[in-house]
């Protein structure tokens, strides 16, 4: 109990793969208060900005409340019968491979298990793939090639014990913030060295000893060079290499590569190799800068090769560490959610494995070959081979490469089912049948985080309307398709027991994944389950893998994979001279269906930006706050330019989060061609080629409103504020009547209008009031609008009569854009404190203002701010 009446419920954060424990306190009215669980081994009470703001993302207004068929509400009975009938008739007419499921690493293990069992065991097709194909597939492929299974050898404790942590293609500070804070705590104690390998200078570089800004895609060459240096310096661990095959061939391949393709200086390379070789306890963390590449699997193996050669694997403070993105990316791999895997780390294409699973499931049909991987799957949807598709817990019309083609493919498919918590997504809007799913705080199940820890997600509040858990919807469709006993699950605990028992069968084939110790877990025990790391058997519990030199290839040896540098698939050329990199922002989660509901999280970066180097911006005549158009061989996008030397000349960076709902011109995957890694099938999301030109609109606009507004211009970006919404806009078309346009935008005809209009100069300022209360204000100008945005956004819903000035009254300080999302502290407030109070460190700012003292993920930006002030002062 926590003093407020209702007990706190232990659960797990539904965002990233760190898998932080949360304590949820329902307020009895559908809301919840959220704090970090001090007892959870992933976070010990810490939460990042996204986890801390979870309470702001529950609520009913955005939710899908009942099943919809062709846009009309229908009963569950009608909707599910339709789904079962259409899948059954399509299979009867065109065979099992004419249908597919596209699922998600955010599903709970129990949901995922049922989906996979239904498709692979009972429909008899392997056409189930997941957004993990866009995320973890290269790591899976690399692990399997080296180890014989998809095993993450280490644990989070390794970050506490390492002396060197190398972040390769990982912006840990923003994407796994609680792990990053853990690393920084260890660094304070033992002086852990940190190296960042990333073409871009990221927030993770602020606390790093070295940043290697290599050329995109050149990681293989760098790690090959490292392997050769390991050998030259006599650092090879011969005893450990005796447990492996293929060292010589891998070394030959490594030596044949040319390090100059990395673009790094000889000194940087030498320093990095020296540090790596001379430090015994090294953890190499890698993420999407490695995986999302046409040489992603090779990058993974280049990293694994260096660890195998030195025997730095599976011992405290040592090892390669693929950090997972989604909360249950690991669980999805364990249940075999990918089109080329079988449940419990068994192989679909191995006849013995197949027979064992078929027997266990008592399954009528099992596919012999792997199914369509995500990119191929949507191509098959587009060309009519897939005739019925069920999309669950993912938004592919936004997140797949070649997103316009994917959107068109979904629109053209004869039968699309989408399960989501909201109908307001680019994908859900294309569904024939839309099914309301319960959200994370409304359902029970398990997830596995990056270090193999299985945690419970627990129901804290009731689902709104008719929403149901994903496993329940899937199981009922299974029953209605004629597989009554196989899908007769009454609870997630029942599914978990079956799954745990199946892992015991897999263990007979000598696989790593085994949770058979939980196969008899009672309902009560399942309810009370505390976080635990697999394997979980009567003889093994948690721990690390591979220190004993025992691997999962038939000869029990690991394999070195010989790899060679390969440039990204798309080549820059005069028409497309820039390399486009993409990635994540600190406070948004993917397609923003949840994080964009939080005003605090939306305040950090309320618009889609394109980061461009000052030299390139200068050459192209792009100034601060200008808009730019990106064009690639397959699509185009419009974003706001942000001029920064965090990107290299010739490179640009955009974030992945904007959608048809929030900024339609900035759906970045519309410009990204679908080139894939030949081994893993993972798309190259980080190395497209584009041209950049200044976008010249006839007008720029900025608006704030109390209720949702409906912008329609060439460029717009909408975000939440504490008082309603704010929008940036720009258009090419001449607007003759701005007052009429404002009424349309704010959805009112009756409001009282106050305006300043100067048509000759293209300036309009319009405020609409109802009962003296501001409901919307619009500012239009032929150049980027210059008003006090952070002040204006506080006015809707208030009796604000002075909005048209666009400025705060002189006595009201303007806090500036929010930097610390947890405490809502703006840049100007921090700058002011630095200058007036002479604060010199991030900690001092924390003491004075609390900024950066909760989740800590804004600390890198505060430190940047300090640096900029110090540099300015030094120059003065
Ligand atoms: N705030 C936030 N956190 C998240 C998520 C989110 O949406 N928002 N999503 C979660 C998910 S699903 C995932 S998968 C993870 C992803 O976590 P990360 O992989 O850390 O995040 P990204 O920003 O996608 O990419 C990481 C870095 O790769 C770099 N990079 C690009 N090309 C190369 C290259 O050729 N070599 C190298 N070495 N680096 C390169 C980019 O510049 C970028 O900084 O984040 C998880 N956490
Ligand atoms: N260019 C580029 N593209 C990328 C990436 C990149 O770095 N660059 N990263 C890729 C990666 S790593 C990933 S993981 C993907 C992520 O991309 P997506 O998976 O498409 O993104 P999300 O916004 O997480 O989509 C989750 C959907 O599930 C819904 N949802 C939430 N809770 C529930 C629930 O309980 N049940 C159900 N049924 N639905 C629910 C949400 O409303 C949302 O619509 O994007 C990929 N795309
Ligand atoms: S680091 Fe943040 S997003 Fe990730 S699990 Fe923890 S609280 Fe959630
Ligand atoms: Mo991901």
Automatic annotation (TrEMBL):
Cofactors demanded by this protein: [4Fe-4S] cluster; Mo-bis(molybdopterin guanine dinucleotide)
Which BP terms does GO give this entry?
cellular respiration; nitrate assimilation
Domain 4Fe-4S Mo/W bis-MGD-type, by residue range, is: 6-62
Gene Ontology, cellular component aspect: membrane; oxidoreductase complex
Record key words, sorted: 4Fe-4S, Iron, Iron-sulfur, Metal-binding, Molybdenum, Nitrate assimilation, Oxidoreductase
Supply the InterPro entries for this chain.
Asp_de-COase-like_dom_sf, BFD-like_2Fe2S-bd_dom, BFD-like_2Fe2S-bd_dom_sf, CT_Nitrate-R-NapA-like, MoPterin_dinucl-bd_dom, Mopterin_OxRdtase, Mopterin_OxRdtase_4Fe-4S_dom, Mopterin_OxRdtase_prok_CS
Which GO MF terms does the UniProt record name?
A: 4 iron, 4 sulfur cluster binding; metal ion binding; molybdopterin cofactor binding; oxidoreductase activity
**Protein family per UniProt:** Belongs to the prokaryotic molybdopterin-containing oxidoreductase family. NasA/NapA/NarB subfamily.
* Official protein name in the record: Molybdopterin-dependent oxidoreductase
Q: What is the lineage of its organism?
A: Bacteria, Pseudomonadati, Pseudomonadota, Alphaproteobacteria, Rhodobacterales
